[in-house]
Amino acid sequence: MRRAACVTLFAVAFAYVEAAVVEYLRGLYLSPEKGGLLFPLMTLDQLQAMGAEHLHRLRIEVGRELATLVIMATVGMATGKTDRERWAYFLLVFGVWDIFYYVWLKVFLDWPESLMTWDLLFLVPVPWVSPVVAPLLVSVVMVVCGLLVVHREAGNRPVHATWSDWIVLLSGGAIVVTAFCWDFRNIMGGGTPNPFNWAVFFVGLSVGIAAFVRAYRRGPHRGAYSGCQE
Question: What pLDDT, on the 0 to 100 scale, is given for residue 219?
Fold first, then answer.
């Protein structure tokens, strides 16, 4: 529990850093004429017309997002003692980070106005957009799953996942990402978001949860993938 608490504290602090960066970026690119609205986004042509330094800043932002994922994955790898624990701590730090990212934005900017406010989630490889509540739901699931795995590890009752469990779990994640990227052409073209594809999102989330529950309820048995022990 001490390790889980330390990882959680790191995630809360790291979310502060992330929200601070976003506050600076919004000050640079959300003009008063837009009334502080995030959408429509600037297109690549519009950024280029503003000067080469703005495209350079976009490339830096993409790199920062990728570096953020590397940092959180590294925390999971350094904290866990087994592959299962490493995955669990990564899920925990990512979920807590994402939840508190919105908490800090609310403190800094009094944003989002509601859970249904649209947000730009990620830029790689295309823009991910959705109402705020969607990534928060994913993050809550990640935190719960991470804590459950850590708890089972502490009691020497590890969660054993088969390769089929992993395939289904990753497929569910891919479906969720598809929902986030569903409207990317319109967003990249400078449009406002179309209605979010909740059907695809909940199918993906349900598939992922079902795969985890199946692995969690299964007792240790031969042929399950348990990860490397150190």
Answer: 59
